[in-house]
Amino acid sequence: QVQVVESGGGLVQAGGSLRLSCTASGLAFDDYDMGWLRQAPGKEREGVSCISWRRDRPYYADSVKGRFTISRDSAKNTVYLQMNSLKPEDTAMYYCAAVTHCTVVAAGGLRSGMDYWGKGTLVTISS
Q1: Phi, psi at residue 78, to the nearest 5°?
Q2: DSSP label of 74
Q3: Which one of 9, 37, 42, 96 has the lowest number of neighbouring Cβ atoms within 10 Å?
Q4: Which helix (H) or strand (E) holds 116?
């Protein structure tokens, strides 16, 4: 059974940093691109960042470029999202996903039966 579990969310002040972690089990980690999506209250889900199994040309949403960094560790089946210079508009539930291609994350969509995602970790940025 595939499990995707996020951690690392919390409450921080604007300008602060958080590092999200996501561990995936029950799947061949290096067969999947790994990404992060977020959904703020009253807003649609959006793709934040994604890193391919090749680790080439990570995807970042324009709103987080230069502030967020994604990385992955195959030995630990874990993907990380380092978030710096956080802003109140970064407040959202952050979801980790194992996808067949990062274009899925960039489009903000996840496909039942093809992609796998966790229950999310809440990030709250105070002004």
Answers
A1: -130, 140
A2: T
A3: 42
A4: strand 116-117
